[in-house]
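User: Can you help me understand a structure? I only have the sequence.
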Amino acid sequence: MPDPDDPASSDGARPASIALVVNPAAAKGRAQRLLPEVAGRLRDTGHAVEISLSRTPDEAAELIAQAAGSGADVLAVMGGDGMAHLGVNAVAEHTATHPDGPPLALGLVPAGTGNDFARSLGLDPDDVASATAVLAGGTTRSVDLLRVDDR
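Assistant: Let's start by predicting it. Here is the structure, written out as tokens:
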């Protein structure tokens, strides 16, 4: 049963605060073109959305790390597999350094060219409305992670 005090609850009881980090250059600008629709859909469902745009991979990593520590309920990334990789690592690091704190969920809005990780989770990169609905609905699931060296 969903927990009404849990911002990641899938019953939509309480809108979450979402820190959305976007690679606007993903898929030759597809992420940038889709951003107004994605942000609008999230805000229309009552979510507070803080958007950060990255210009480089290093800046993306920095923005994602900042977003993970911002106090938002959800760290969402929009782009391709590179953004997903950075998001997974940031959530794993946050969880390791804050084991007793509230959980940080990772949201994905696939807008890159490959989107392999999103596809493996059942998200259709060609249906951004559906992926955004999953994020807005607060649907969560656990995934296994493996640490290799410092990743």
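Now, to help you interpret it: The beta strands are 17-22, 48-53, 74-79, 105-110. Residues 41 and 65 are 24 Å apart (CA to CA). Let me know which part you'd like to focus on.
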